[in-house]
Design goal:
Elements lengths: L1 H56 L29 E14 L7 E14 L4 E10 L8 E2 L4 E2 L2 E14 L2 E9 L21 H6 L5 E11 L3 E9 L29 E9 L5 E11 L9 E13 L2 E12 L2 H7 L5 E16 L11 E17 L13 E13 L2 E12 L9 E11 L1
Antiparallel strand pairs: 1-2, 1-18, 2-3, 3-6, 4-5, 6-7, 7-8, 8-9, 9-10, 10-11, 11-12, 12-13, 13-14, 14-15, 15-16, 16-17, 17-18
Length: 442
C-alpha cells in the first residue's frame, strides 16, 4: 500500500511538473509572438509617421536609387517616378577649374551648373517633371561681364513636361521635352560622364542639352527594345548669328518665346536585350527654319553603343547632319554669307575602375577619350557655291583623366585635354587644358 501511495505521489509530481513545463513553454511562445507583433507594429508606425510627415510637408526624403532610370534619363531626373510622396525634389550641380597650358591664355573658374529637379505626381499615371538650370553662377543684371572676359550667368527652364503613363509599351510626354538623341542629352548629370566637359561631338553637333516643345511617345518593345518617337519644334538654323562651329548649337529653340511655324519628327530605337549592352540609333528630320526661309530641311542622325562589365565601361557615338538648300539658310543668317551644308563627328570613351579589383566601396575609374568634330564638313554661300570649310572648326581632342567617387552621388574629376585643329590653314593654335571639377546629384 505504501509503495502504491509513493508511486502515485511520484507520478503526480511528475505530471504536475510536465504540465508546468508545458504551460511555461506556451507562455514563452505567446510572449515571443506578442513581441514580434509589437515590433512589426512599431516598424509600421514609424513608416506611417514618416509617410505622413512627407505628405504634410510635401517633400520626398528618399535617397536616390542609383540603379533606377526612367526612359533612359539620369537617376536624379527619374526621381519623381520612384517617389513615395507627391512632391519630389532632386537635382545636380557641377563646378570646375581649367588651367589652359598655352602661354597667354587665361585660366577659368566656373560654378558651371546648379540644377534643381522638381516633380509632382498628380496620380500614379499623370506626372509633372521639370528641370530649372542656373548656369555660370546664376542670373545677374546685364548681359555680359566684359571686365572679367566672360558672360553673366542665366537661369532657364531646361525641360517641363507632363508624362501620361499608360503601359510598358506606350506612354506620352507633352511639353518642353528633351530630344531623345545621342547619349548625353537624356543623361547629362555629371556622375554619368567622366570628362570634366561634355564631349564636343554632343555639344556642337547634336547638341546637348537640347530641349524643345513637342510630344514624345515612348515605351518598350518586348524585352529587348525601347523606343521614342514624336513631333517637336523644328530647329532654326537661320536663327544663328553666323555659320561655323556653333551654327547647329545656336539653332536650338529652347523654352523661351519663339516662332513655332514648322515641325520636325524625331525617333530613337535601342537594343537592351544583353545585360550591360546598349546599341541604338536616333534621327531627326524636318524644316531647317522657323522664319522666312522655305524649302530648306535638316536631317540629323546618330548611332551609339555603350557596354559595361565588371568595372569596365565603353561608349561610342557617331553623328552627321545634312541641310538641304543651305544657300537659303545662308541668306537668312543674321551675319549673312555662308552656312554649313554638312557636319559630322564622333567620339570613343573607355574607362576602368581600378578599385573594382579589390571590391572597394569607392570607385576610381581612369579613362581615355578621343573626340573628333567636323561641324563645317561642307559650307555654301548664298549662291549655293562651295566656299570651303571653316578652318578653325575641325578639332580632334584626346583626353585622359581619372574620377573618384567617395559616394555614388558625388564625383571628383581631373582630366588633361589635348585639342588639335586639323586643318593646316587654321589660324588657331592647338591647346592643352588641365581641368578639375566636382559634381553631385541628389
Amino acid at each position: 500500500m505504501k509503495k502504491t501511495l509513493i508511486s502515485l505521489a511520484v507520478a503526480s509530481a511528475i505530471t504536475t511538473s510536465l504540465f508546468a513545463d508545458a504551460e511555461t513553454d506556451a507562455l514563452k511562445a505567446q510572449l515571443k509572438a506578442m513581441t514580434e507583433r509589437l515590433d512589426a507594429m512599431e516598424t509600421k508606425q514609424e513608416s506611417l509617421v514618416e509617410e505622413t510627415a512627407n505628405l504634410q510637408t510635401g517633400f520626398n526624403f528618399n535617397v536616390l536609387d542609383n540603379d533606377f532610370s526612367h526612359n533612359g534619363m539620369g537617376v536624379a531626373a527619374s526621381k519623381v517616378y520612384n517617389s513615395k510622396s507627391p512632391l519630389s525634389i532632386g537635382g545636380y550641380g557641377e563646378m570646375y577649374y581649367a588651367n589652359k597650358r598655352n602661354a597667354g591664355d587665361d585660366n577659368i573658374a566656373d560654378v558651371y551648373r546648379f540644377v534643381p529637379y522638381i516633380g509632382y505626381r498628380f496620380t500614379d499615371n499623370i506626372i509633372l517633371n521639370t528641370e530649372i538650370e542656373f548656369e555660370h553662377g546664376g542670373a545677374k543684371p546685364g548681359s555680359t561681364d566684359a571686365a572679367n572676359g566672360g558672360d553673366y550667368g542665366y537661369a532657364v527652364i531646361e525641360f517641363m513636361y507632363l508624362d501620361f503613363l499608360l503601359n510598358d509599351a506606350f506612354n506620352i510626354q507633352a511639353g518642353l521635352v528633351l530630344a531623345p538623341m545621342g547619349l548625353i542629352n537624356l543623361r547629362h548629370e555629371p556622375t554619368l560622364f567622366n570628362t570634366v566637359q561634355r564631349p564636343l561631338t554632343e555639344k556642337y553637333l547634336l547638341p546637348s542639352t537640347w530641349s524643345t516643345n513637342g510630344v514624345i511617345a515612348y515605351g518598350n518593345i518586348g524585352d529587348n527594345f525601347t523606343y521614342n518617337a514624336g513631333i517637336m519644334q523644328a530647329l532654326n538654323f537661320d536663327n544663328a548669328s553666323a555659320g561655323g562651329q556653333s551654327q547647329i548649337r545656336s539653332s536650338r529653340m529652347g523654352g523661351g518665346k519663339s516662332n513655332y511655324n514648322n515641325l520636325a519628327g524625331v525617333a530613337r530605337l535601342d537594343y537592351i536585350g544583353t545585360p550591360g549592352l546598349l546599341v541604338g540609333a536616333s534621327g531627326y528630320y524636318g524644316s531647317a527654319s522657323q522664319g522666312s526661309v522655305s524649302g530648306a530641311t535638316a536631317l540629323m542622325y546618330d548611332v551609339h553603343v555603350t557596354y559595361e562589365n565588371s568595372g569596365f565601361k565603353m561608349k561610342a557615338l557617331y553623328t552627321a547632319t545634312k541641310i538641304s538648300d543651305a544657300d537659303k539658310i545662308a541668306a537668312g543668317l543674321v551675319a549673312g554669307g555662308t552656312s554649313i551644308d554638312k557636319a559630322n563627328g564622333y567620339y570613343v570613351n573607355a574607362e576602368y575602375d581600378v578599385l573594382n579589383m579589390i571590391n572597394s566601396e569607392y570607385k576610381l575609374p581612369v579613362f581615355v577619350q578621343y573626340d573628333y568634330i567636323n561641324p563645317t564638313d561642307s559650307v555654301v554661300d548664298i549662291t549655293n557655291a562651295s566656299v570651303g570649310v571653316d578652318v578653325n572648326a575641325e578639332i580632334a581632342t584626346t583626353t585622359v583623366g581619372v574620377n573618384f567617387f567617395p559616394h555614388p552621388q558625388v564625383v571628383l574629376k581631373a582630366d588633361y585635354a589635348m585639342a588639335k585643329y586639323q586643318n593646316s590653314g587654321t589660324t588657331k593654335k592647338d591647346q592643352d587644358i588641365l581641368s578639375v571639377s566636382l559634381g553631385f546629384i541628389f
